[in-house]
Amino acid sequence: MAVVTAAPSPLPVSAPQSKLACWPQDRAAGEQDAPHYDYCLLPYTPRATTPSDLMSVNVLRWSWEAHGVLAEGEALLQRLRTALGPNQVVWGIKQRAHQPDATSWELYFYRRPHNPPNYTLARIAELFAPMSVEGVLADHWRWLMFSVEFDVQQLRGTRPCTSNVYIESSGLSYKLRAGQPPDLENHYLFRDPLTGIDDILARLQVSVHATPDPLALARLLPPQWMRCHHVCVANKRFADAVYWSRVDMHQLEFFLQRHAWPETLRDNIHDHRQQFQHLNWDIGVDFQRAADDQNFMFIKSGLYGSC
Questions:
Q1: Angle formed by the axes of helices 249-258 and 263-271, to 10°?
Q2: Alpha carbon 54 to chain centroid distance?
Q3: Geometric angle at alpha carbon 154, from 149 and 157, rounded to 5°
Q4: What is the DSSP code string of 6-56?
Q5: CB 193, CB 230: distance < 8 Å
Q6: Which H or E run contains 198?
Q7: Which of 40, 72, 179, 281 is deepest in the core (most CB within 10 A)?
Q8: pLDDT tens, 155-207?
């Protein structure tokens, strides 16, 4: 049976850059603490809690607002939260380097113990309507997660969205398109930043997109982000990537500034930093070999949360 949970009533908090009322942190009646989940939809203990805490999904809403698709995005969130309940969805904002308008979004749906029993791609595709979602999960696939990726036009329903499936215990993900076989997308490796640093370095040292010299590795693993829960290295079709899970507000703001995220979004986050202090954030960058074949460039960065 579906859990019916409406979106939270807006909290009257706003930044000069946005007049959008923020969504307060989900809490059950009479509860001081709420469940918190990282981008793997695994629970963590919040850093601190106050009555004015805000949900991380406000950042996603600000991003939609900036691109003129807030109504479409919020309607999608309302459908998902009403049908599935809270703490069921991981969201991601993908920002192309030096292209403030080249933004896309992705929603991730994990197979976790607290998920509803009808948690399937077909069911989620129904909730995305009137958006169209391509892809079918074969019955015999042992999947851990699937996701739906979209840009402004897809959120408006003018083009179908593609989906991705992440196979359990493999580190592999595949792109799913209508009428086509699964297309290998990523190969992930998660490690503890302390005990697994040798594996992390070894993976980066053989990347075809970066040289193995110390300066390149220092750019890929800034010390400011190594105080985190896990580091993930991913090999992709046209790039490689590094992700850091459960970073704090200071680390997040450094990340957004370093990768030149839109100033309005950075200002909104900074102005609400006290109400986001309880959260852990997840961040990542894609890098690609440069034209001179001697260097690499960052081509995309991502910010993740849950709702």
A1: 170
A2: 17
A3: 135
A4: PPPPPBS--BTTB-PPBPBPP--TT-S---EE-TTS-EE--S---TT-B-T
A5: yes
A6: helix 197-205
A7: 281
A8: 999 999 999 999 999 999 999 999 999 999 999 999 999 999 999 999 999 99
